[in-house]
Amino acid sequence: MDDSLDFSVVVTTRNRPVQLLSLLTALSRLDYPPNRFEVVVADDGSDTPVEAAVAPFKDKLNLRVVRREQGGPARGRNTAARLARGKYLAITDDDCLPEPEWLRETWKALEANPGAMVGGGTVNGLPENPYSSASQFITDLVYAHYNRGETGAQFFLTNNMAAPRLRFEQLGGFDEGYLLCACEDRDLCDRWRHAGFRMVYAPLARVRHMHRLTLASYCRQHFTYGRGAVRFHKVTALRGSGRLRDHFSFHRSVGSWFREAFRRNPGLGGFRMCGLLILWQVVNLAGYLYERVKR
How many domains does the chain have? Predict the structure, then answer.
């Protein structure tokens, strides 16, 4: 550990140099002392190594890049975390743009809640894209259900979470078994709470999510989440930290989802959003059943 560093910002990337450069630009503009944080980027087997692309930021950021064979985002984040020297890990994705106050607000929440994991707020950076908007709307629904109250949080996405580095290492980091399926963030949060550690939601620690989706990639994303849910429910049952039926209350709220969709998107926009919510559930279930049959 380097006592001079508050944060190690951990990022994994693969074949998205433009998005990575946008992220590094945003990190170079943070309202936080640049000598108090580092950035560790794990290049997860990109076709073209990212070292040359990120070279202009070597003088603007305390930046390190590690290249490894492709192994998925969980393995990439763990690789970067093992090289981290800061007191806290701040994890985000290469398609996110942290707001200037991101680390400052994250620091305040971490210091006020010693030992806790902190998750920040996420804002859709592509409001003109209906699929990106629907994906963010789903995130908002999940956070509203699982993160009621500041200190009653249960789930954070890896595009905006932070934790004490030593405690993250104590739990073994992300489960790299989620190689082709998502849910490694869901699994980490479940292990964190099962170990008796707290989670705190800090909505003012915001990032803008610049995830440009199409109909195909929207379906692929939620199909993958459905596949990951099979492993998640299996491992939580084995360690005694949760049961599948514990999550039924979220899906019983479908009526409130549609009402909120029309409140945010009056007229035809509400119908389109509801259609994408139905598609989300259908594709998510298809991914779940596919993985169950495959296993």
Answer: 1
